[in-house]
TrEMBL record:
Residue stretches making up the Helicase ATP-binding domain: 55-249
Record carries keyword Transferase: no
Protein EC: 3.6.4.13
Protein's name in the database: RNA helicase
CDD domains: DEXHc_DHX33, SF2_C_RHA
Amino acid sequence: MATGDLFNSNHQLKPQFINGDHKSDVFARSLSLRRQKIAQQRRSLPIASVEKRLVEEVRKNDTLIIVGETGSGKTTQLPQYLYNGGFCQNGGMIGVTQPRRVAAVTVAKRVAEECGVELGQKVGYSIRFEDMTSISTRIKYMTDGLLLREALLDPYLKRYSVIVVDEAHERTVQTDVLLGLLKDVQKKRSQNSIGSSNNYDFVKDANNVKEGSNEVRKFNPLKLIIMSASLDARGFSEYFGGAKAVHVLGRQFPVDILYTAQPETDCLDAALVTIFQVHLEEGPGDILVFLSGQEEIESIEGLVRENIKKLSEANQKLLIFPLFSSLPSEKQMKVFTPAPLGFRKVILATNIAETSVTIPGVKYVIDPGLVKVRSYSPDTGIESLIVVKTSKAQALQRSGRAGREGSGKCFRLYPESRFEGLDDSTVPEIKRCNLSNVILQLSALGVDDIIGFDFMEKPDRMAVIRSLELLYLLGALTDEKKLSDPIGRQMASLPLEPNDSKALILASQFDCLEEMLIVVSMLSVESIFYVPRDKLEESRIVIKSFSSPEGDHLTLVNVYRASIEFLEKNKTENNNEKVEKNLRKWCKDNFINNRSLKHARDIYKQIRENVERMGLKICSCGDDMLQLRRCLAASYFLNAALKQPDGTYRVLANGQIAEIHPNSGVRRTKPECIIFYNLVQTTRNYVRNVTRIDYLWLAELAPQCYALKDG
Ligand SMILES: Nc1ncnc2c1ncn2[C@@H]1O[C@H](COP(=O)(O)OP(=O)(O)OP(=O)(O)O)[C@@H](O)[C@H]1O
């Protein structure tokens, strides 16, 4: 490896001496030490002893199922073995899908480091709104949803010689759709194969045949690998026509599993007690706690902070890091930085840290055994999040996060008898979610018969019908259930939920696309406002200055505009770092989550590029937001609700009763008729992100839904 490569690598090291000529020497030496350590770690992984055999199996089988213990090295090593085994010759790529963004990003970083290359070159990642790849990328980690999107532009996925579907046991809705699609792509590619499966010489011209041309396409066969630590190998093998399954035996380090003697009634309290028990009684090592959501994480965070203060000074060296999906990625990445010497990290995470992720330093896992999942009722059309028990597969993945760099311990906050009673695997998401996005994407891929699509497990018929109805009402599907042109096609090309895509398309007709881009971007991130517990009253007054009496969507526009105005004013600074610093202060003073706002700005930029490419007219409605409200009514008409005499709201489309969420700016004024962005079900039904509309607009702007019923 050339020295230049070493210096380009994406390492975390900092030289210890920084004066004089020693600087680069010391730097190179510590880098070389780290590389030696990594090489040695790689060699000691259980999967290393079967490298040759695995490559051979992939050569011999077009589809292979690989089951191996957590931490055995599947995710990080297999793609490198295949690369070295010649599967990327002449431009083919190895694509590895992950159910979660954080895993795709962190694993890509690690593999780039292991290969000694700069991230984004030979090894890269691609997730929604973030592409870290280049033409040189050969090993690409990505979310399963992203590969689905790629299939829209490249139905034969011809850039890929191998696709690895990692953590397939999670059975996210995207994984399930992807599996059906990959099966089909694989069949089509082998029918038009340029040679045997052993031949991995990509024939350039054959792979560059234009879509839709009459030329005979010739492709390399697509190698497909399905991988997990806790897989129902038989089910997957049957689905793939008796595909071969191989097991990688052994784990690198043992993990002790401990259970409670009795069931715990208060899981949060049990988690809190266990955190301090580990901190005060166990040896060095970081703690990873699995919690069901942001709310639980924030409440435990507060409690841990309070309790730390009660400890002796020597014991106060405990650092807390939250980790959940709506946390901006820079903040998520902080979790992966080692704690300073003498400190212990406690990471409070949702199940985004459950699979594939290695958090350096973690030795202890605390698992209350609960997880928040999507649940969908085809009867009401309401999608909600509910907390359920994990499956055995999930419990296994969680304990697998300890013991990655040495032996570990996992504290399950329930008795062993409960573990025995858990389901083996999680109910596939496709059985419990709104399918409109999936159907839209499949329609764009030419799959019109959703019920007949080769799913590993069929979705609920009623859920399919509901989603078809929604897409039809949005104008995305024709009477024949085919993708409409241009609306449906345009909607499918945007990386958003169907409702949001439709809102953008309509907004260009309502001359408020500029504002709708802001609304959709701001709604794509969670919690634009950040309110510390001890400043509730002060924050309320400040936030009110952005607040629009007409509704929360408009408030979001106000916040965004104010931040842009602030940035414009500071432009003269000519110093980006200073501008960013000023903006951070501005956000802090205004109780705005700086990271969320930045994230929203990035998303805005990307969707704006998308709609520009589609040729939509971008106009601003200025200060008169009437058009924006009308456009919201025209797009989110199924989320319209009317005030009831008791102050609650009745959702017109399905009769559900809900209250306006306490965080909404119109909770007090209670408009007669509202449009909301989402309905969440906790102990009560709450509608969030609410804006006032005129009831009469519904029949005018959404006659397909309201003219007959209420006209
Ligand atoms: N970012 C990292 N920092 C330090 N070590 C890492 C990192 N990523 C991976 N490793 C090491 O490589 C080992 C193998 O990780 P890998 O993700 O390939 O395993 P896996 O078999 O895919 O596990 P899982 O099923 O849990 O995803 C880990 O146990 C750890 O020792």
